[in-house]
Batch of 3 targets.
Target 1
Amino acid sequence: MSVLCDIDTVHKTYGHGPAAVEALRGVSLTIDEGEFTVISGPSGSGKSTLLNLVGCLDVCDRGTLTLLGHDVAKLSAKALAQLRAQRIGFIFQSFNLIPVLTARENVELALQLAGDTKGDRVKRATEALERVGLADMVHRRPNQLSGGQQQRVAVARALVKEPALVVADEPTANLDSTTGANVLDLMRDMNKELGITFLFSTHDPLIMVRARRILLLRDGRIEDDEIKTRSDLTREVERKALQDMLHNLADY
Amino acid sequence: MLLRLAVLNLTRSVRRSVLSMSSVVLGVAVIIVGQGVIAGFEENSIRAAVDGLTGHVQIRPRDYPTEGLAHPIDKLAPVDPALADWLDANTSAWTARTVFVAEAVHGADAMPVRAIGVDPAKDSEVFPRSGWTIDGSEPVSAEDGVLLSTGVARLLELKAGDTVVLQAHTTGGAMNALEVPVAGVFNAGTPMLDRFGVVLARDLARDLLQSGDRTSHVSVRLDDREQTEAFAARLTERLPEDREIVTWIDECAPVLAFQAVRQAALNLVVLALMGMSATGIANTVLMAAYERVREIGTLRAMGMTRAGVMQLFVLEGALLGVVGGSLGALLGAAVVLWFEDRGIELPLALATGHLPVSTILYLRFSLAVAAFSALFGLTTAVLASVYPAVVASRPAPAEAVRA
């Protein structure tokens, strides 16, 4: 399996002087093509910052980040935009659909920004929505869809251009557990079928159950990086769920 | 898709979009109506001069007075037959007039009047009566009497069928008076005529002034008023020593000079209105930019460049300009065309002194002005949306997407 992203001693600091916050402190890791990887960690650990850097939404201060053979720090803003448009898909916690566009137009917009020709766009956008089970909702606007349906549109939007990488920031945080599980299964299927690399940031055990690799980030550093077997993960999640339930019962 | 997105974005807050667009509508409409009024005033002045006072070109005694009610008759002269032949060959129409000051007397009331002795057969060819209203009839011979202006008739309390005494000095200096019937009362829409004018057949003027074939003015009508200066230059070569030429351009000069002031005033108003439009549009686009930070972040994450975001917001401003400019052009054109047909009655007080003006102002519509105004509205809207577009595109994608 070839390397999709190589991160070497990356630092990222926000702000200046005494107010400066060092979000990443020399993170190094490699992400291979086809991975389904979770970045976990407490709030402020640097998960979102790392996702931003890998998703080319931001660039690091020090170190090197090579994505798809490009040294990201050396790319112009326009080249970064082009890389995002053509090779990276995004799924956000709050879905981030364009409210005035229909489901199909939201998906089509991703294709347009990726430079696809007009004739092909409608067909591909419709197919992408069919793939996520929204064939009969292509003309609905986001406010006419449930949260789960909106996130499915977001998944279709991220996948329609067949990107090399999908960056998903807490994709199930605003969904109930059943809907979240469905959306995750959908993404897992896409990962298996299309070989698209998924990189998540999350606290959600549901995602961790499905991830093959979990990176634990703390204070801007990678504390743990392990590829676990499914049974390990399931046990961990069940243990955590049991702890949470007991904790809640104690409170009650 | 970008255009559709821009259109749909404007529909998010229809009231806000309509309000800011209405300022463009108003601004563009004001330009068109204002220019229509200015052009109308210009045409009004030209028509008053050409149709009521001078024709396109007028020959009159040299150093003829132009202020007050002064029409000396010491330089009356017959029309030179050679000149008459030349005028026949080179004009659309021409006519001779004798203008003099007389006193109109009715009972105990008397007032000075501007008497105009006309050739009944030819006068209307140079000075069309289409804009006149006549209560009674126009005299065609000495026996028919006189046609009084509304101003004279009102002051002397005369109407068609009454009699009036006209008294004037003859060319020899003696005082002469004739009691004549009032053939009718006219309103030409030209205050200079309507206040003190009395029209009479040339024969009656001859009787009163004892002037024989001599006249004071020769007025000429051309096929095209644009030929006036060229014609006047050719005519000058044929003029007797004691005659001079005055054209409608000379007569209208004071009014046309005032047009520059009107234009400057309109420009100021337009500038203020367009400034308000620009502020309204900038505010609308800026508010949209602040409200849609996360969406902008999403678009940036999806690969839209900063220039693309700016393009989207400028497009939204441009759409406000296109729709506002078009509606403004339609509204302005409708107003101008309505008053181009019906005219606006001006207060008589506007027409003072010797300025050639008509009491009915017909606005003038110009397609070029309408197109320019709409384009001006569009340009204003586009320029006004540039700054908000820059603001909208400024946040880094990583920050914007989580806003």
Note: The longest helix of chain B spans residues 248-291.
Target 2
Amino acid sequence: MFQNIGELLVLLWQTIRALPLAFRHRQKISDQLFEIGNASLLMACVLSIFIGGVIALQTGPVLAERGLASAIGGLVGLSICKELAPVMMAVLIAGRIGSAMAAEIGSMRVYQEIDALRTMNINPVHYLVLPRLIAITISLPILVLFAILVGWFGGGLVAVLNEKIGISFQSFFINLRLVVELGDVLNGLFKSAVFAVVIGTVCCHQGLITIGGPRGIGRSVTKAVVNSIVLILILDYFLTRFLLYFEE
Amino acid sequence: MTDAAPSPLRQSVQVRIAAVRKTYDGMAVLKGINLEIAPGEIFVIMGPSGSGKSVLLRHIIGLEPPDDGEIFINGESIHTPGVMDKYRMALVFQSGALLNSLNVLENVGLYLTEHRLKKPGEIARIAVEKLDMLGLKNVKDKYPSELSGGMRKRVSIARALVIEPQLILYDEPTSELDPLSAVVIGEEILTLTKRVDVTSIVVTHDRDLAFGIADRIAMMYEGNIIAVGTVDEIRKSTNPIIHRFLHADFNPQNQTEES
């Protein structure tokens, strides 16, 4: 495990050192951005609308019973932007994009394409990891921003349509605006950027160390997704603690 | 393997392998290999499957470090920093190892594109020229998955040629090919070596290919070089392992008699 963590940090460091080459790889970065956005945007929106909806559904009636129905906007707004959108989108992207990264790089490794790159003096970290890591670090916060907005909308919709809550769209968003600050949204976006780096590094690393045939690729994909999700959830706690210091 | 622009004046290199050893999980795969390959030579390393031929090739091009021993190119150890960048080397992989996400033209021009050695139009022209040289002009827009095994190998050779290598390594260039395609590949290796000044090391267990193209042959068996010589010397060898390897033929009649 410690060897794996060490290798992950080395890969991340090599990628950070290669950042000045990013402009040179802009075409690959834009291809990856398209890939990630195209594959995830619709799913992110669908997921978020239901996440917002379910929070409103679970908490709304309880708050309404106690005469606090108007507070639901703030509750849904905060929980989505600070916690649920970054974590759920990161989990979604780990499953949707991280698995594809691990599978693609893993199959390149198994079928000697990475060796072929090395014989041509093309650094696999520059060619494969750098564009993916940059693209995911740009796109995940953007997806999270979408998820936050759509999630709020979903929450508002349920708050309006559910008879037990029965507040207006307007009062939902007035309360949301009172409670949620720009810093809360930035908090979520910062978390998502960190999660993106974790997903990109873990999945690319798992691809690069793939051995064996198709079974090895399958194993790598599973490990990449599971490790990413575990790390996201552990890091989420520590990031939250860290960010709380700034709020205090 | 260099960042510098390929020079039009190619110069084949001398390769010396000195006491190279490699062990994987306690199993010795290379047991102290010593070889010397002259500039411009077609040197064939022949031997049964699992004798360590491909592993040796991966060591020569620096894909794997030896546990012990040294590999020298023109007298310079490849493990000295900067030496691998100084010489242009290419490996034609057994599988072709073409990048499946790129089409044939992009695969062939990859080295020049990634090192920004030429403008895109010039790269395309060079790639087409190399493909044409190997009779593959019509497949330039296809993807590797759309090509036959023989075509993939030839594209892989074209990709190697773009580097204008001083040393070109072929790993089982005729494996998985029908006899006709194998002959074509063999002829191409010969033609290329004549046309450009390059040292070629070919790893194969294909006896016909080895005898057809080799200046010298090394016989490898269980991680050791058991003989080095010209085609005639290897043919006439009295070593029982070489004799068995060279004269192994499938004869159904023997099977019936044995049973």
Note: Residues 1-9 of chain B have pLDDT under 50 and may be disordered.
Target 3
Amino acid sequence: MSTLQLQAAAMPLAAAAAPGVRSDALSVESLSLSFGGNHVLQDISLRFEPGHITGLIGPNGAGKTSFFNCLTGLYSPQVGRISLGTQRLEGVPPTGRAALGFSRSFQHVALCPELTVVENVMIGLDRQSRAGWLDAFLPFASGRAERAAHRALALAALRRLGIEAVAEALPAELPPGVLRLAEIARAIAGKPRVLLLDEPAAGLNSVETHDLSNALKKLRASDLVLVVVEHDMDLIMEVCDAIHVLNVGRLLASGTPEQVRANPDVVKVYLGDDDE
Amino acid sequence: MADVLGLVWAGIISGCLYAMGAIGIVLIYKSSMVVNFAHGNLAGLAAFLVFGFTAGTLGNMAWGAAVVLSLAIMVAAMALTYLVISPLVFKSDLTSTISTLGVGLVVQGLTQMVFGPDVVSLDLPLPAWRVDLGGLRISAYDLTVLGVTALVIGALYLLIERTRVGIAFRAVSANPFASRVCGLSLRRVHLFSWIVAGVLGLIASLLIVPTTFLSSTSVSSFMLQAFAAAVVGGFTSLPGAVIGGIFVGVLMNLLSFYVAAEFTNTYMLAIILLVLNLFPKGVLAVRGGARV
Amino acid sequence: MSESATIAAPLERSASGLALPRNLSWPALLIALALVVLPLVAGGYWVFTLGICFANAIAILGVSFLVRYGGEVSIGHGVFAAAGAYVVALAEKYLGLSVLLSLPLAALTGALLGMLFAYPSRNISGIYLAVATMALALALPEVLLYFSGVTGGYEGLYVKRDALPGVPRELQRYYLPLAGLVAVVVLLRHFRGSRQAMALLLIRTSAPAAESFGVRRSWARLACMALSAMIAAVGGALLSFSSTTVSPNSFTLWTSIFLLVGSVVSLYSLSLIGSLVGGLFLTLVPLLLAGAGNWVPILYGGALLAVVLGANALPAAWRKRLGGGQS
């Protein structure tokens, strides 16, 4: 069975979107990426549905990060199409994808150490801002109103992830688990259409991973495509509705967590690898 | 046609001197990741010392003795400079670069205090000998510059490729962390490159002085050209510094003659911006990891 | 006003731990008031000197702004200060405008020049950018002298027109720069809470992160350069007004280096007190050492080394501000 067929058979029907709410899927067709003679990704086709949390796993060197970078526009694949709904994404740089509703977190926490947590989260709203340079320097009413509104939205995002209490703290004062949640808050503050999380559990202890898992489950929304790249199998199995497995640049398997867990190819690839 | 040839020849000669200044800058940068903005002032001080020792301000020695003594003082000065800023060298490249500005200011002040702000002329003990070769005028000075440059480059090559300290230098330039793990003394390599750079600076400034007057500020303009040469060649490439120097020398001469002579530094600015936009890391940059 | 108390999370917070009300801290407010009253008690010498000091402080703020928000070091900001100064002088000579009217013009010119330099240097950073700014600073006197018909050549130009009719000359030359300094500090304070400031600070930490939120590197560089050049131009404009003359001698490479020295001595501060410290250092040292001129560069250099080496020995929170977070 082709991977797409497996996928279609395995997944429950996506909840019908409310009229007026855009709920486009992120689809990838025949994507190939190589650097020099090194084939990093080969002929990958898959689909990320809105309203689901989709996991992307695979052993080290499988090409997960490269695939992620293709999705976000940091890399340009030589072959293949990436589309959000009907919108083609080839050639659109990261800043352009941000404008289309892409949002991501990073493997190494990329929060600004000089800004408080809530200010860091407010950056997630930057592309929706209409404040110009005059508003930046002079206390005009519209500028102040926007600052207050964005601050409220940022606090709401923090509340959604359960860390509103640390809004005024600086990153240096907080443990990595909280920082990771703050980064995710920043990523969702602007109500993105696509949220890409790159190893969100990296560096977290089991308690923090548990908090993360709960937070992620609450992020499901019918108008959001949520993709998680992870090594932590427990987190993936618990949180994801669908999982794609990459190995040496190719798509190895797709399906629900139970199907992937039972898939002999996947088991073989992971045999001998320690789960983190 | 003869004009162009003469301009190019003169450009090559002055280019050799820029190259020597640039090599000094690149040596220091490669090993300790510091841009020595004090290089011009230190080299100028060296030339002033030679002047002082030969013309009576500080003594009345023979030329050779004066050079040797100045050399010794330069070595001490470079070592002292490095030791003063060494706490910063291992911490932040930007801050240590800023501190070299401080050193430059101090040296500038010292030079002015001891030798005054006046312009002096320093003559090299060279025969006033000239020959015409197919429309090209070659003087003893030109040959001296070429000869010294070739000697210096040759000696440097042997030093870096064949001696232990040279190999250590190459190791530290490529990967300071690994070098330290292998037991190399970073400090010793840094001192080596700073001292050699100082010697090169002395030689370069002594050779450029006959073409211009020596004042406490004249060497700075020369140094900008050396910086431009280092930038063109790629700050991390020693052969690049040589090529950059000659390129800058020739281009400057041509521009001064054919466009306008008053815009030396403006040309430098244009060259630097142009080259860095076309070749972000210089024309011959060595690919290496950045130390943060 | 309560919202600005919570939004304006200042850069100073990590160092002092104080929550800052309104747009000026209490010590700064007190000092500002003291300065307003000072001419009533101090002599003419001090009034004149402090006027120049305030203008220098503004120029230093331009350099510090580039360090704090752009992470770059410039030894060419004298060029932007010169631009502001010459605009004021030329506006007076050719258009008969007083500094009050030519100040916005000077600021605009500074911003344009900043963008003009920022564009070809937008991909250059660190030491390469520092070398480019050095070339910029050395190129300026050449340009000024070439167009000496307009710029007055070596002798330069005079700035003699009154800005505030009826007010004694010396007081104008004191209060206008003081007002300018306070205005710039307050505006920068408000700027800190803006989305542009937050974007600039983030892109210094992580360019990929900022780009994924739509903040472009070229935008950041152009904005930083334009703003810092604009601030320096305002400083230069007020400098020409308070010192009454403008000439290429006032804007050499050393001027730019001294501006950096002032910025380092102030620990790259964007506050009133910090910039005053930098400005005082820059203005008083040559005056106090007027007899032994050669000691000036030695003292500047020594101070720069002392501050940089001394700050190196300080705890991490301060050192992070010096090193600028990224090298």
Note: DSSP finds eleven helices and two strands in chain B.
